[in-house]
Amino acid sequence: MTICAGCQVKEASRLECPNCKKLGINGSFFCDQDCFKKNWGTHKIVHNIVKMSVDAESDKTSTLPANMRNYPFTGTMRPVYPLSPKRVVPKHIQRPDYADDPNGFSPCEAVRERGIKVLNAEEIEGMRKVCRLSREVLDYTASFIRPGITTDELDAICHQACIDRDCYPSPLNYSKFPKSVCISVNEVICHGIPDQRPLQEGDIVNLDVSLFHNGFHGDLNATYPVGKVDQESLDLMAATKRSMEEAIKICKPGVAYREIGNKIEEIIKPTGYSIVRRYTGHGIHNLFHCAPNIVHYGNSKMPGRMEAGHVFTIEPMINLGTANLDHWRDDWTAVTLDGRRSAQFEETILITETGHEILTRLSASAKKNKKKKAKKAATTNGQTPDGTDADTPGTGTATPAATD
């Protein structure tokens, strides 16, 4: 027997509240019309509660594009739309071939390569310059990381820093990527699109900066803490950076490219973290992405050996949990399948006759001069510099000092 929803005493008839039916509330039957009218003032409170719940749920998805509203997000991150308009690059700045293509297509990258390009002395100098500029832009943009700043605001800062150096931000319109820098927060592995979400205390955020200058691309990235971060995230970041550093150390002429992945796995496997296999490092010079492919996991069959004049990136993506991933419905954002955090670090490497050179790091003398300038500026402002390297995020610090 179904009890009347009004008097809560008599058996209900087939008289159902029409509003409850519209709202999908089951079981709202009354014994008769008089009981329905008598208890209307109390009963309609149920409608208000359900409407408030529906409105609250609607607010959660109101900032999502229509094609993402039913997407089963793997973690806590959500995109916050609308995206800001595409940023303008002045006409006097040299552009890569995909910059103005409606589909972001690069005809040069589409040409099949016969092998890994060996750069001559002039090309190497071009790479040194663009990589130095790329480091400047990453350090500068990272200095603004703090709780409350949106990733779109960081994109605007990075974009202007590129323009100020007569550089084109390489990600912009590459295969239709809509922004000037990739910003990946928490469970986002890579290719995060800057949007209106403010960074929050305890987040970790990766800035992947790439510049195009005088015909060459530079590429590097680092993961930073936002305010005070939990130890688990700090350990993940430290292990990821160490795996990259150890892999860089083995680089010299004659070394097989697959040894990079073997070294990274040697560092990461004992930690219990996982290595993303879907994305790799890559060759880079006048092309943004080209041979060789640099896998970051062990026991691969990747062919090729390093030669003097080769330039490529090493950029391991390391996850707290599974290596499996998914993509948001924006054609770009890669996220961990279990929603746990991911970290990444990247440098651009030149193979020399005797070993290697990290093109995206300042030389010792340049670093020393930069520290002197920073110290002088801090003293002038009544501050004390902390000496933290910008490419080595400080424990629990929101804005690593730009000293490298």
TrEMBL record:
Cofactor comment: Binds 2 divalent metal cations per subunit. Has a high-affinity and a low affinity metal-binding site. The true nature of the physiological cofactor is under debate. The enzyme is active with zinc, cobalt, manganese or divalent iron ions. Has high activity with zinc; zinc cofactor is transferred into the active site region by the ZNG1 zinc chaperone.
Positions annotated to bind Zn(2+) 3: 208, 219, 346
Pfam families: Peptidase_M24, zf-C6H2
Binding site for a protein: 191, 289
Region of interest: Disordered: 365-404
Domain C6H2-type: 1-54
Lineage top rank: taxon: Eukaryota
Compositional bias segments (type: Low complexity): 377-404
GO cellular component terms given for this protein: cytosol
Residue ranges, compositional bias (Basic residues): 367-376
CDD domains on file: MetAP1
Keywords attached to this entry: Aminopeptidase, Cytoplasm, Hydrolase, Metal-binding, Protease, Zinc, Zinc-finger
One biological process term in Gene Ontology: proteolysis
Transmembrane segments: none
SUPFAM superfamilies cross-referenced by the UniProt entry: Creatinase/aminopeptidase
Residues annotated to bind Zn(2+) 4: 219, 282, 315, 346
Family per similarity comment: Belongs to the peptidase M24A family. Methionine aminopeptidase type 1 subfamily.
Function recorded in the entry: Cotranslationally removes the N-terminal methionine from nascent proteins. The N-terminal methionine is often cleaved when the second residue in the primary sequence is small and uncharged (Met-Ala-, Cys, Gly, Pro, Ser, Thr, or Val).
Record's protein name: Methionine aminopeptidase
Organism annotation: Cutaneotrichosporon oleaginosum
